[in-house]
């Protein structure tokens, strides 16, 4: 052995590690006060379930006992709550919920240690088919809801959604989800880890509506204790908490193990495994282990929960929660003293340890990266699950608007069954055309880095319309680049419908404008402020009639304004309208006849032209004199209301009323339907309350509404016992007065209330009446202003939207008014036409004719319409106008002139002319088309056109066809009714006949396939003409039939192929299911077909397959189907089976049929078959299951010796499931790199030195036991994963050999096992040589091992590859020699260097003469052929001695070395240990 060098890194590391261990051994351990197990009790909040799996794990895995605790877990019995168990001393710890906060505010000494569930498991559950997508959809529905604290989160959710319990039909909770399944309720208060499973099992799709979607986010399961436990046993508490959280980590990482434990020990509810698996998944989503630390508690969340409980009046306002959250104190205790005493030794150890850590840092980082990658994948899965629970549509789009992802709610919203229907398609295809441009602009905006929103209309895949509101944000990658658009979309169809309904209701109230208690006006915005219009109400304000103000005819309104107010008012307007369109001001006027001063309020908006300049002012004047006078008398109220309107006025007024009356509450409300009062403003205890209403019946407000002002200074609750709100609020005093409109009708109520006898100030009634009057005026003003604004907007929209020229002429036909559209239509400004006649703008020859027509109309004083006339544009081109007009008369009944509209129809006339020309060209075109048959038909479907191609196609000459009925010529009788109805629908309803493929009649009676399209000409006339364009599809149909046959039938055997079989099998399964029948699948595989195909050639293989198809077809019954499944595999489908014996008989007949020799031209071949059988419904419900299970049974028949049949059994099903599990895990293992190479040295029996090693693949999962190669290698062989595994092994072995070579370990070879499939499916020679080149290795650095079976089945390509590798210098060994089809001819034919004797001979050879003789023979043969012999499986001294005695060259086995990781072998190579001592 070479001497140890002091500078060797491994030596240094080993030395430091040993020194650190010695130092730590010297240090005395910290002492704990108790070494025995302390008994404690944990009280659960419910029966045993996965919800408490973490505590079971902590108990069963010894986490509690390691912490010095003997924990007893009690399930809930219903006699007492977990909090009561804590406070009464029944338990030291308990699992409770967020209601622990309520108990804490009540002074109970409870402490929250950890929140296991980060979100509340309580939620509303509805059927997906109910159409309820949000909580607002609960209105009028039956809702199950618990009382009090139980469903506090759900009650808060209803409040956040704007619902009261009166909006719903509340049912007591049944705790049984079957209430929802049976239809006893519409909405169920569910526990998400439990009831959703029962719904899922019935096949009903459910939808959860979670409180956190509405801003209510409670903690779920909370681990709790008492203050006494925390103060008296702090170390025990810390140990219990740490062990519990560790138990939860274990439970979440090993759910299947915990489910097994619950089923075996804790299943008091008798839950099924499937139920517990459902609980495990949903519990994990509530715990969120990848997003937050298990048990994490946020103080802000507890404050949020406190605020919600306060809102629900479960705790009083201002409740304190100090001390609720457990905070672990730093403990000095024995650990601190221990650290002080031994700090010097510990410091030295830590320094040495850090040196070692730095050397191992790189390896640790690789493991950490793999771990974080797995966690990230799990986090992404959790996030996708949360998004799928979201009731709104969540989607992502690329830059072109194509859909990338969408959650289940979004797919349901657009009527999509699966994401593949819409993924990759532009989402704008669903957006209605008027909104597409806006949607595209939104996408562009988001991809520039800005978020945005849009309200738009869309059409689902099934054609239904819906209104959607979307909010979009950019999604940035780690480098800051925007890669996609993320949006959340809500269905707001119901909201839009409600708004439209409200709009229609508002329109029905237009008549209120006539009763507005104010003067509506329009005036010029200039120095004169002359009125263009003012309503008659101005007379009540000024004593002047409205006409006196029009254009300042008799007086200017400015002359009435108080001199002190003119300049401030005009200055205000100028400043206000500089950057606003609305205004409001108050000023005084002086009435001329009595010099009385009146206060007016002026509110309006400015109308601007296209250039932005103000054209006029539209507003309303209201008399506010009484309000001003009241201001002087009630200064305290006026001060709070000056300058206020709208909601601010109402809010300030109720607050001022409270102060003036020294009351506790005040309200202004409007009466709806004479039954309900909806508060406009309400204050209670100094806070404004929104969205509050109450019924009139039984309340003092009913008396106010029916009579007049009422006052009840005290005992009002006793006088109105039917009003529960009075008693609930503890009201003593009440004062109220009605709000009336201009017709003295009561429209609302003003009231104040007090919990003490009401302090009634002087003039209280006047104050209430003044406020009621002001409130009534403000209510009417708001309604009037809203109505006026809507009218003005409609009028403006109407004027701006018309494109016609509106005019008025006098009795001499001279224009007296022209609308601005004259500029667009004729090029003249309106003022250029005034005083001229329409005939002045027509060509002379047209003007005389139109003038004479118009003169006749004037003489008859009649209206006229659609008078077409030619005009000249100002720029000289011609314009055709369609003119309509109506006469109007003066006071004496004489004709005053005409008013009318001119419409520009120039483009329409040009289009008509173009259409006529197009029709002419169309007829010329169709005459020239030789292969396109064109026919024309009139309204009665009589032939009016028949070109030569139609004669060639249908056999009728033009003379025979013209005048005949279409249905008498080429329409089959079965199409008569459809043809007539389609033609009628086109003529009467404008529904075109769609183009498509038809079968029409030839003259001789045979059917012709044609593609027919249709055109309707002169549709708007009395003589519409339908033209049909037909193209012969006979050749295309024959080609399609041939393509369909190619796609569904095997081209060699002409049997149905796999595609057609699976389609037919799917249909037969449905029939069997419908009629309760059985169906059998026989999966037939030819034994050793490859041998015949390879040895005799593919031509003979094809002949054999044809004969096999013929023999199988001869065994068919009437309804059976045989198909070629692929290669040498056939499938026989047998429907309508009564007994299994029928299937067995057919299988036996097939096997007997194959016993007869196959005649392949001049050669004969014997072929047997293995048959696997699966039955419907016993062995599968789907096509895939039946074929897969039959395939598995076929493989079992082959394993049993071939030439037999095998029915599928449950054992095979278990093996198949295990196979699929192994395959799935193996694929994941290839991705996560948990497959590792171990190396077993091969020892030279003469020198005892290691000469080479065999690379052995090991599967070491991070979270489970190692999986044997004997289990996963066969799976890899069957699934062809062996190809990927082989490449990984070759790459890893070469990489390791290069690393060792770089460290000076050169005279050493790694042998790699090669599968036969790697030769068949890969250019193995290229793979190996390129890998060697990549790592700078020579062929002598690597060897390969093959089994005899690989060589037996090898073709010339495999032989060629092996020879090329051998010639390059690579050693080739035959593994497990003697167990296969050993043949000296193969040893001679193939380039083999080493023979490896299988361990089966070595095991008993020391005392079994037969095995010894076989070994001696193998050694002799090997040495005679110049090969070395390696003996495998040497495990003891006797086998070792025998191997030397008979002349073996090399040996490997546990006697020398076990398989080991690369690091261990590297150390062994550098510092060898005698082989027989290493194990």
From TrEMBL:
SMART domains: EAL (SM00052), GAF (SM00065), GGDEF (SM00267), PAC (SM00086), PAS (SM00091). Residues 452-504, 583-636, 865-917 form the PAC domain. InterPro entries: Biofilm_reg_signaling (IPR052155), EAL_dom (IPR001633), EAL_sf (IPR035919), GAF (IPR003018), GAF-like_dom_sf (IPR029016), GGDEF_dom (IPR000160), Nucleotide_cyclase (IPR029787), PAC (IPR001610). PANTHER family: BIOFILM ARCHITECTURE MAINTENANCE PROTEIN MBAA, DIGUANYLATE CYCLASE DGCP. The chain crosses the membrane at residues 342-363. One of its GO terms (molecular function) is catalytic activity. This is PAS domain S-box/diguanylate cyclase (GGDEF) domain. It comes from the Bacteria. Its cofactor is Mg(2+). Coiled coil: none annotated.
């Amino acid at each position: 052995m070479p001497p140890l060098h002091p500078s060797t890194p491994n030596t240094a590391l080993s030395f430091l590690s040993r020194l650190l261990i010695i130092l730590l051994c010297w240090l005395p351990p910290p002492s704990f006060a108790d070494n025995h197990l302390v008994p404690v009790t944990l009280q659960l909040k419910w029966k045993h379930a996965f919800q408490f799996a973490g505590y079971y794990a902590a108990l069963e895995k010894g986490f509690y006992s390691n912490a010095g605790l003997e924990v007893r877990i009690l399930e809930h019995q219903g006699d007492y709550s977990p909090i009561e168990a804590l406070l009464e001393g029944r338990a030291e710890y308990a699992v409770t919920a967020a209601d622990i906060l309520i108990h804490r505010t009540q002074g109970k000494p409870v402490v929250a240690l950890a929140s296991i569930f980060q979100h509340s498991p309580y939620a509303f559950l509805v059927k997906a088919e109910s159409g309820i997508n949000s909580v607002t959809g609960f209105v009028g529905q039956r809702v199950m809801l618990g009382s009090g604290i139980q469903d506090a989160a759900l009650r808060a959710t209803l409040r956040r959604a704007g619902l009261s319990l009166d909006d719903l039909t509340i049912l007591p909770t049944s705790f049984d989800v079957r209430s929802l399944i049976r239809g006893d309720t519409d909405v169920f208060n569910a526990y998400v880890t439990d009831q959703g499973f029962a719904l899922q099992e019935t096949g009903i799709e459910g939808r959860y509506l979670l409180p956190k979607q509405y801003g209510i986010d409670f903690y779920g399961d909370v681990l709790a204790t008492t203050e006494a436990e925390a103060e008296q046993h702090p170390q025990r508490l810390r140990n219990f908490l740490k062990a519990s959280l560790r138990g939860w980590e274990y439970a979440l990482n090993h759910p299947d193990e915990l489910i097994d434990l619950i089923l075996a020990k804790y299943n008091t509810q008798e839950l099924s495994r499937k139920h517990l698996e459902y609980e495990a998944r949903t519990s994990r989503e509530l715990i969120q282990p990848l997003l937050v630390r298990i048990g994490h508690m946020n103080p802000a969340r507890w404050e949020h929960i406190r605020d919600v409980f306060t809102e629900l009046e479960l705790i009083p306002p201002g409740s304190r929660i100090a001390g609720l959250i457990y905070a672990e104190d730093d403990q000095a205790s024995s650990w601190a003293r221990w650290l002080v005493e031994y700090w010097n030794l510990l410091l030295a150890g830590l320094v040495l340890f850090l040196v070692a850590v730095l050397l191992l840092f790189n390896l640790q980082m690789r493991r950490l990266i793999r771990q974080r990658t797995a966690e990230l994948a799990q986090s992404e899965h959790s996030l996708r699950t949360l998004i799928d629970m979201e009731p709104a549509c969540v989607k992502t789009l690329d830059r072109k608007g194509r859909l990338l992802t969408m959650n289940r709610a979004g797919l349901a919203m657009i009527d999509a069954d699966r994401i593949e229907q819409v993924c990759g398609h532009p989402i704008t295809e669903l957006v209605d055309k008027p909104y597409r441009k806006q949607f595209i602009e939104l996408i562009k905006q988001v991809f520039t880095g800005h978020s945005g929103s849009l309200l738009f209309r869309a059409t689902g895949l099934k054609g239904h319309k819906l209104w959607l509101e979307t909010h979009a944000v950019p999604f940035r990658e780690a480098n800051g680049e925007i890669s996609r658009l993320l949006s959340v979309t809500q269905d707001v169809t119901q909201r839009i419908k409600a708004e439209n309904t409200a709009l229609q209701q508002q329109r029905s109230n237009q008549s209120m404008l006539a009763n507005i208690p104010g003067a509506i006006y329009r005036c010029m915005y200039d120095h004169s402020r002359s009125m263009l219009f003012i309503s008659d109400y101005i007379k009540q304000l000024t004593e002047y009639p409205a006409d006196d103000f029009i254009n300042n005819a008799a007086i200017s309104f400015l002359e009435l304004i108080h001199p002190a107010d003119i300049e401030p008012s005009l200055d205000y307007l100028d400043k206000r309208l500089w950057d606003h369109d609305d205004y409001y001001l108050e000023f005084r006027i002086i009435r001329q006849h009595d010099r009385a001063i009146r206060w007016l309020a002026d509110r309006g908006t400015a109308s601007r032209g296209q250039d932005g300049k103000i054209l006029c002012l539209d507003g309303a004047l209201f008399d506010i004199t009484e309000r001003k006078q009241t201001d002087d008398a009630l200064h305290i109220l006026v001060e709070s209301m000056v300058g206020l309107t709208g909601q601010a006025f109402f809010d300030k007024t109720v607050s001022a009323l409270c102060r003036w009356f020294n009351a506790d509450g005040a309200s202004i409300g409007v009466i709806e339907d004479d039954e309900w009062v909806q508060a406009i403003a309400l204050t209670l205890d100094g806070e404004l309350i929104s969205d509050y209403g109450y019924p009139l019946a039984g309340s003092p407000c009913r008396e106010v509404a029916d009579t007049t002002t009422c006052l009840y200074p005290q005992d009002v609750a006793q006088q109105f016992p039917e009003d529960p709100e009075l008693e609930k609020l503890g009201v003593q005093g009440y004062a109220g007065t009605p709000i009336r409109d201009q017709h003295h009708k009561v429209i609302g109520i003003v009231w104040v209330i007090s919990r003490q006898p009401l302090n009634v100030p002087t003039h209280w009634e006047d104050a209430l009446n003044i406020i009621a009057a002001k409130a009534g005026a403000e209510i009417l003003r708001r309604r009037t202003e809203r109505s006026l604004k809507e009218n003005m907007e409609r009028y403006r929209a109407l004027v701006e939207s018309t494109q016609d020229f509106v005019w008025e002429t006098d009795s001499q036909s001279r224009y007296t008014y022209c609308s601005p559209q004259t500029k667009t239509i004729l090029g003249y400004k309106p003022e250029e036409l005034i005083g001229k006649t329409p005939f002045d703008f027509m060509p002379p020859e047209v003007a005389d004719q139109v003038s004479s027509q118009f003169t006749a109309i004037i003489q008859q004083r009649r209206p006229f319409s659609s008078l077409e006339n030619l005009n000249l544009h100002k720029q000289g081109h011609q314009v055709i106008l369609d003119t309509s007009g109506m006469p109007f008369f003066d006071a004496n009944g004489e004709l005053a002139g005409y008013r009318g509209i001119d419409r520009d129809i120039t483009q329409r006339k040009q289009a008509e002319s173009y259409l006529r020309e197009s029709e002419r060209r169309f007829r010329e075109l169709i005459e020239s088309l030789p292969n396109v048959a064109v026919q024309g038909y009139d309204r009665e479907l009589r032939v009016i056109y028949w070109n030569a191609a139609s004669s060639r196609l249908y056999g009728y000459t033009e003379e025979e066809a013209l005048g005949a009925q279409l249905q008498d010529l080429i329409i089959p009788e079965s199409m008569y009714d459809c043809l007539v109805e389609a033609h009628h629908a086109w003529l009467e309803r404008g529904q075109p006949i769609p183009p498509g493929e038809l079968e029409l009649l030839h003259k001789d009676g045979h059917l012709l396939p044609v593609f027919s399209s249709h055109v309707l000409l002169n549709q708007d006339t009395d003589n519409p003409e339908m033209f049909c364009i037909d193209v012969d599809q006979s050749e295309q149909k024959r080609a399609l039939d041939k393509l369909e046959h190619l796609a569904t039938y095997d081209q060699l055997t002409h049997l149905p192929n796999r595609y057609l079989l699976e389609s037919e099998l799917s249909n037969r399964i449905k029939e069997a299911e419908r009629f309760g029948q059985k169906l059998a699948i026989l999966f037939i595989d030819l034994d050793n077909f490859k041998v015949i195909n390879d040895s005799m050639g593919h031509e003979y293989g094809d002949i054999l397959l044809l004969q096999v198809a013929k023999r199988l077809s001869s065994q068919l019954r009437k309804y059976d189907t045989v198909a070629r499944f692929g290669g040498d595999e056939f499938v026989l489908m047998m429907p309508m089976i009564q007994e299994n014996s029928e299937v067995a008989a057919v299988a036996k007949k097939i096997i007997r049929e194959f016993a007869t020799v196959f005649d392949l031209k001049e050669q004969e071949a014997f072929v047997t078959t293995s048959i696997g059988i699966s039955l419907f419904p016993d062995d599968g419900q789907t096509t895939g299951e039946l074929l897969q299970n039959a395939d598995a049974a076929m493989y079992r028949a082959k394993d049993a010796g071939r030439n037999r049949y095998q029915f599928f059994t449950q054992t095979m099903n278990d093996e198949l499931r295990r196979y699929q599990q192994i395959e799935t895990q193996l694929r994941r293992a290839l991705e996560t790199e948990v497959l590792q190479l171990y190396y077993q040295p091969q020892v030279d029996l003469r020198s005892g030195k290691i000469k080479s090693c065999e690379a052995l693949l090991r599967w070491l999962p991070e979270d489970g036991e190692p999986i044997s190669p004997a289990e996963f290698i066969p799976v890899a062989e069957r699934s062809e994963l062996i190809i990927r595994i082989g490449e990984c092994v070759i790459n890893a072995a070469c990489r390791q050999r290069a690393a060792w070579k770089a460290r000076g370990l050169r005279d050493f070879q790694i042998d790699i096992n090669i599968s036969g499939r790697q030769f068949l499916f890969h250019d193995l020679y290229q793979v190996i040589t390129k890998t060697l080149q990549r790592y700078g290795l020579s062929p002598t650095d690597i060897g390969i091992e093959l089994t005899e079976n690989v060589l037996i089945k090898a073709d010339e390509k495999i032989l060629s590859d092996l020879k090329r590798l051998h010639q390059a210098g690579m050693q080739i060994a035959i593994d497990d020699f003697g167990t296969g089809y050993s043949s000296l001819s193969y040893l001679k034919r193939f380039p083999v260097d080493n023979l490896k004797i299988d361990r089966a001979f070595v095991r008993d050879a020391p005392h079994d003469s037969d095995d010894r003789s076989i070994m001696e023979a193998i050694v002799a043969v090997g040495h005679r052929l110049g090969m070395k012999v390696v003996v495998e499986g040497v495990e003891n001294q006797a086998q070792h001695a025998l191997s030397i005695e008979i002349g073996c060259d090399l040996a490997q086995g546990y006697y020398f070395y076990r398989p080991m990781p690369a690091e261990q072998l590297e150390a062994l190579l550098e510092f060898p240990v005698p082989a027989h001592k290493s194990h």
